[in-house]
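W.,

You were right to be curious about this one. When I first looked at the sequence I had no strong expectations either way, so I just let the prediction run and decided to look at it fresh. Below is the sequence, 165 residues in total, followed by the output.
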Amino acid sequence: MPILDAHTFEFFSRSPEQTRRLGMRLGALLLPGDLVCLQGELGAGKTTFVQGLAQGWGALDPVSSPTFVLVNVYRRPDSSQLFHLDAYRVDSLGEAEELDVDDYLAQGPLVVEWPERLEPILPAERLWGWLEYETEEHRAMRFVACGKHYESLLDHLRQTIYGGD
């Protein structure tokens, strides 16, 4: 895939396993305070991507969509935590503010599905991903880095996938 600019990374996944593997590579790079936003319709592959991300991060816990509980917490052997928030059922900004996003970010990385419902309360610096359903197996993914830290994160992700400097 061509690199559109330093802020953007595009990837075309040909299978759920490939979507998971991309997630694993990103997850291995995440640090406490990192915010990954995943936007896409139902069935776009967000939860599949997060399964890989959590695995790459080192989570001991299985990943499921937190649609009904809003936030799932995944742990590593060293007691670090990864937070997985699904904002699909968040109906208002007041409800969103009650989630205390800053508290999650202070404790570990945070992955948000349906982030457009929380955008006014999310930090401006973040990695924003769009996942699109193409066919039964194929997904188009585009990630945009907002901030120097996330540009560096995307550079590292590119290197783990394509090699090079």
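Here's what jumped out at me. The mean pLDDT is 90. And, maybe more interesting for your project: Residues 8-162 form a domain with the Rossmann fold fold (CATH 3.40.50.300).

Coffee later to discuss?

I.
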